[in-house]
Amino acid sequence: MRALLVVNPKATTTSGRTRDVLIHALRSDLKLEVAQTQYRGHARDLARQAVEDGTVDLVVALGGDGTVNEAVNGLLSHGPGEKVPRLAVVPGGSTNVFARALGLPNDPVEATGALLNALENRRERPIGLGKAMTEGLPDRWFTFTAGLGFDAGVVGRVEEQRRAGRKSTHALYVTQALRHFVTQREQRRSGPVSLELAGHGPVPGLALAIVSNTSPWTFLGNRPVYPSPLASFDADLDVFGITRMTAFGTARTVRQILRSHGPSSDGAASPGPSGKHVVSYHDVRHFTLVSEEPAPFQVDGDHLGSRSRVSFTGVRRALRVIV
């Protein structure tokens, strides 16, 4: 099988020596070309070129969720189709939500072993993805989450800290979330975001709006976080929102999120957070988030600036993934 390995050399949990070992292992089973990313968006450009050239059957992304998202957007730059190469992931970031949601080990060496086993046994699965659309800007595919409002503001704060030299850790996210909560007092009382969903009246006043393509939404260390426990790669999108973020109410909702769980072996999942300020919808194909003023926007943990209106679509069986 012809494969392109897209490597993020700045991935937080892999050293140069580890990457060399992984490349050697992959070359034992694949006709492998290796490319290192050199700038933001490079993984997207490399994957798009691979599609347009028709030179590979598989693109392997070695890096965190940002590298995976770029590779996916490159693979789907002309839309889904049978000619799009398969995707495989070797986790190398600090959280690796997408890889872990697929059931892959969080250790890159173990994940490489699982990948080689999957290739040997021809295991793959089609997965659904989300697509975010903003007028005048390119569409953006996402693998596990998007958000408009509070959570995207936290992502933006973390990226500022990383540009200042801080290492991406779970503690950094928690610290910035608490600081953002304290500073966004007016937004917490009456959020600027409205949800527009066909067949329903507008839901105004959202301070936080999280779109999930799968569950969990993220991880705190080894603890999965489930605002939308029923979200799945086999369904369309889930939406979770909060209309009023008081200290007591938010703490209660956070406890519910941390106690929720995804589907068990019998397919049952916990119902997820509830309360008079909680909004949730499951398996929705199309909807729009509208903000009274430009609000922070993120996809797969990548802050994309501010948006006033973003439409979302769930696309089933958008991509084939080696698992």
Which helices and strands, and how do they pair?
Layout: E1 2-7, H1 16-27, E2 31-36, H2 42-53, E3 58-63, H3 65-75, E4 86-91, H4 97-101, H5 108-120, E5 124-133, E6 140-142, E7 145-149, H6 150-163, H7 170-183, H8 185-189, E8 193-196, E9 203-206, E10 208-212, E11 218-220, E12 223-225, E13 237-242, H9 247-259, E14 278-284, E15 286-299, E16 302-322
Helix pairs in contact: 1-5, 2-3, 6-7
Report on this structure.
With 323 residues, the protein is α+β, with helices and mostly antiparallel strands. The mean pLDDT is 90. It is 31% helix and 34% strand. Strands 5, 6, 7, 8, 9, 10, 13, 14, 15 and 16 form a 10-stranded antiparallel sheet that branches. A 4-stranded parallel sheet has the order 2-1-3-4, with helices on both faces. The protein has helices spanning 16-27, 42-53, 65-75, 97-101, 108-120, 150-163, 170-183, 185-189, 247-259; strands at residues 2-7, 31-36, 58-63, 86-91, 124-133, 140-142, 145-149, 193-196, 203-206, 208-212, 218-220, 223-225, 237-242, 278-284, 286-299, 302-322. The radius of gyration is 19 Å and the shape is globular. It contains 9 helices and 16 strands. 44% of the residues are buried.
